[in-house]
């Protein structure tokens, strides 16, 4: 997953970034309503972790901004406002979930995975394609009875393709999934990961659609 963490407390924001990155996800940080709107407009995110008390406005305005534009992104509110009225207001405004501070990082990660499953229209925690199975929580993959040894980014590429097996994902879409704003990306980085996956899964498992991108066979 690619996650936008909207949090103005730098210590908490760094903790979120480190903790969620440990789940194998790419995490970007912003601290204001203005930055959040700009980030949502220029980058594709799978989920947003949204604080409500931001220095230049209410986080709910970011939520309404995303929903008014039909952005296909899951939103989990993370806020010290833990009154039932605040929860109701956020959920009615379009939030997918609401977590009060202080919070447990493992629980937040589990809620993000659940939101992602609902958005993709599936109920099983595991992803399956033919005899290949991925466990997003454990970051494990196996084909038949054989465990696969995948790097973090190989896993992320395969997870992205298996989430939408009927779609063709472009190199740019995969790069967004794999790399943060501050990371240098080699010109053939995605192609290298695809090459390594084909070596482990078979040359025909991932199909190249010339001039468009990649999809599962």
Automatic annotation (TrEMBL):
<dbReference type="Pfam" id="PF00072">
    <property type="entry name" value="Response_reg"/>
</dbReference>
<dbReference type="InterPro" id="IPR001867">
    <property type="entry name" value="OmpR/PhoB-type_DNA-bd"/>
</dbReference>
<dbReference type="InterPro" id="IPR039420">
    <property type="entry name" value="WalR-like"/>
</dbReference>
<keyword id="KW-0963">Cytoplasm</keyword>
<keyword id="KW-0804">Transcription</keyword>
<dbReference type="InterPro" id="IPR011006">
    <property type="entry name" value="CheY-like_superfamily"/>
</dbReference>
<keyword id="KW-0597">Phosphoprotein</keyword>
<feature type="domain" description="Response regulatory">
    <location>
        <begin position="2"/>
        <end position="116"/>
    </location>
</feature>
<feature type="domain" description="OmpR/PhoB-type">
    <location>
        <begin position="124"/>
        <end position="217"/>
    </location>
</feature>
<feature type="modified residue" description="4-aspartylphosphate">
    <location>
        <position position="51"/>
    </location>
</feature>
<protein>
    <submittedName>
        <fullName>Response regulator transcription factor</fullName>
    </submittedName>
</protein>
<feature type="DNA-binding region" description="OmpR/PhoB-type">
    <location>
        <begin position="124"/>
        <end position="217"/>
    </location>
</feature>
<dbReference type="InterPro" id="IPR036388">
    <property type="entry name" value="WH-like_DNA-bd_sf"/>
</dbReference>
<keyword id="KW-0238">DNA-binding</keyword>
<keyword id="KW-0805">Transcription regulation</keyword>
<dbReference type="Pfam" id="PF00486">
    <property type="entry name" value="Trans_reg_C"/>
</dbReference>
<dbReference type="InterPro" id="IPR001789">
    <property type="entry name" value="Sig_transdc_resp-reg_receiver"/>
</dbReference>
<keyword id="KW-0902">Two-component regulatory system</keyword>
